[in-house]
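A quick aside before the break. I want you to see a complete sequence-to-structure record at least once, exactly as it would be stored in a machine-readable document. Don't worry about memorizing anything.
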Amino acid sequence: MNDSFYWGEVEAFGEELSSFINSPILTISYFDDDLFELNFFLNGGLQTGHIWYSEETREAYELEEKRADISILSEHIEYQHIKKSNEILNIDDCEQAVEELQNLLEIPLWIKSDWSEDIDDKELINKFEKHNLNN
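That is the input. The structure line, written in tokens, reads:
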């Protein structure tokens, strides 16, 4: 997760990136434990997306319901994960949805851009490059 992006910028970046890459782009946005949004982009367009939020958050930000199309998701995930994906889509709690998605995808989603400040292993840090995509 990149703390330099603002709400909606991750999606715009993913949408644009998908027009240059011949593979689906997954974007994930998480804001203040109140909003969690997942989107799949392909060929410069949104394929499907889902947003998790509380009723209070929906009202405060005047959000419309956004539910992922499981038939489109099934094109991008392995068949045996469809049931679990559907269960994740029905979770109400944002943090729990991130945790479950993280377990399903087997990749960390709680990474922050300043993660390397907490690690003393210079060899590990040197394996990664930091890119500022906001300029």
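Two observations worth writing down. The longest strand covers residues 45-53. Residues 107 and 125 are 18 Å apart (CA to CA). We'll return to this after the break.
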